[in-house]
Amino acid sequence: MEGQEHSSDQVKDAPVPMPASESRAGTIVGQQGQEAECPTCGGAIVNGAGAPRFVYALGRVEARFPSIGVEKEFAQATGRAETASLTDQEALQKVLSQRQNRYLAREFCYVLTIEGLETFILMPRDPADFDLLVGAIRPAPRHTDVDVVIGVRGPIAPLEMCNGLMVPIVVFDQMYSFDIDALIEGIPRPPTIDPAEFTAAAEALFMRTLQMTDNAGATDEHRALNYLAVRYPRIYETAAEQFGRNASLTRVEVVPSPLSGVRNIVEVIFSYTNRNTDVTEKVFARVDVTYKFPFLVTKLSPYYDR
Q1: Pairwise CA distance, residues 227 & 289, whole Å
Q2: Could you tell me how many helices (H) and strands (E) the chain has, helices first?
Q3: Collapsed DSSP state (helix, strand, coil) of residue 231
Q4: Which residue, of 4, 37, 108, 237, has the fewest CB within 10 Å?
Q5: Sorting pLDDT into bands at 50, 70 and 90, what band is 50?
């Protein structure tokens, strides 16, 4: 991590140890107006206001053969490599990681899947970042692996780009990979909370974020929520404290902030309901999602219905 952390309320530069056109109650649609082409955005789809469609997505990167020609070339490269006793996934990662096969790594198609669904085709803005894509191909994938992709959503991919797969292209500016266990282990734990209880609470909250319906990280509400999930450890401390008070996480919602005006600010609200009294307590954080990289405006605080 970059910089010094003086409080668990501070926003991390990266998770430890890694580096519709209208609003409605309880949710917010990120982009306004109809889609249009931006002549200065490299073909990216933008909204009617001229702003790029930003993406802040949590998923898993998979490497695909875009054509039979690339598949045959990969088979020849594999035949020249030492791959005895390796699984197919281990052999794939080894071959693509070799310096002499960098040309081949650039030919592959990289797909971000979210909850098992093919959601985006990834393209680096800087060609040197193909190394990040190759690095996301784990030799032994686990269901707890997570890849964070931050960039700009472009048009639907043409048929020939990824063997007929037609999903939006995302040109990413930042990408990093981690597993959930490493993320949780790196979160500063309050000394008053039992380690096992904290781990269980943090994992439950993170999985709840990943499993939210249609969370492709392409709307303002989901970008804000995903940002907090990987950059703001205080939400996990609060979840552990609430579980310790016999409260359940009953709702996570995102609403427009009254502070919105020139800037686009949303409020992420976490509702905890006591299992004995059925009384609900709400806490919230404000996140500015005006730009590609969201940032915290207001730390986690009590929320009162207006």
Answers
A1: 10
A2: 8, 11
A3: helix
A4: 4
A5: low
Of the candidates 289, 287, 286, the residue with the CA atom closest to the CA atom of residue 303: 286
More confident residue, 18 or 281: 281
d(CA 281, CA 154): 40
What CA–CA distance (Å, rounded) separates 121 from 107?
13
220: Cβ contacts below 8 Å, ≥ 6 apart: 28, 29, 30, 31, 254, 264, 266, 289
Q: CA-CA distances (angstroms) from residue 269 to 122, 201, 203, 223?
A: 31, 17, 18, 14
Tokens of 227: 């940002």
Could you tell me if 206 and 180 are in contact, meaning their C-beta atoms sit under 8 angstroms apart? yes
Q: Pick from 141, 131, 39, 133: which is nearest to 88 by CA?
A: 141
Write the pLDDT tens digit of every residue in 116-132.
899 999 999 999 999 99
Using CA atoms, how far residue 166 sits from 58, 192, 213, 304, in Å, is 20, 50, 21, 44
- pLDDT tens across 201-256, in order? 999 899 888 777 678 999 999 999 999 999 999 999 999 999 989 999 999 999 99
Is the entire prediction scored with pTM above 0.90?
Answer: no
Position 141 confidence tier, pLDDT thresholds 50, 70, 90: confident
